[in-house]
Amino acid sequence: MKAIVLGAGLVGGPMAIDLAKDDEFEVTAVDIDEQALETMNEANPKITAIRADLSDARVVKAIVADHDLVLSAVPGFMGFQTLQTVIAAGKDVVDIAFFSENPFDLDAIAKEKGVTAIVDCGVAPGISNMLVGHVDQLLDRTENILIYVGGLPEVREWPYEYKAVFSPIDVIAEYTRPARYVENGHLVVREALSDPELLDFPGIGELEAFNTDGLRSLADTIDAPNMKEKTLRYQGHIEKMAVLRATGLFSEEEIDVNGTKIRPIDFTTKLLFPMWKLKPGEADITVMQVIIEGEKDGKGLRYVYDLLDRYDPVTATHSMARTTGYAATMAIRMLAAGLYDQTGISPPEFVGRDEKCVTFMLKGLEERGVVFQRRIEEL
Is this prediction's pTM over 0.85? Predict the structure, then answer.
């Protein structure tokens, strides 16, 4: 099968490399960054590399035309348009772009085209949603859902003690986009970085958690009175980001600087991104905990899934690329195997309703060293 990966950056490149390990796939990867394509090809010369501007919908339409399956790993600000173009082209797609638009706005055209589009298919949102959908099917009633997740550098370096393990501009969006969660059956909207709490994670230590808009489709697809997703960082990160935001350094509104109009966000990213860049060989970690509580046969149950993943020095693959990317490549394999064929927009919790799909996804991740530990407790 011909598979094409749109985006060959921090996550897209490792996804193309992983897919190309299977003789079943003839893999093409597309990016505007020549260096990203060269790095990918050094790891696997079998991958066909195309340099192109994916922000142009006409380019996307032309490039996907000759392929069976599409994996979209473009930055969030390009995500919705790219997905819309791929669906209009009639191509089944797995998407990891974290865009602000509602993917269900594309549900009608996807069904009309007979397209299966699995969206938000990373680690969180992604596998977290799939696990929630899976347990929701097992319980008679789901009461509480709580998701903690973070990608962090192994070594803490002043001043930010953070490195961007996916598109840096999407990281900043997490600090500015209002966070939605469900409390007592009502949708609540709070500013990002709010409601801080400290949590201890074995093998890592104490991390701070804060509200971000990571609940995504779960707020609409799962009937539970309490649902929340929080991002994890090393202590002190919330205050630093809140200061930058309050100062206006994340603003997209132009200001005048000595007669020149600039957007503060452009200035900020020019300074921040080099400091947030993961250098070759720098290790990162991914930590996630998914807690789902409810009732089965009159008994209170708590399902807890834990993930602690680290940079792989053998393949020089960062943890966030492994956990996010391999979730998406396993979903591509799932489509290729015919295990999931529901047309329309499918967030991962829809996939989670099918036991065989959950087994397939988790087994594939485990084979790649991404292992989720599950425990079930009586309440």
Answer: yes
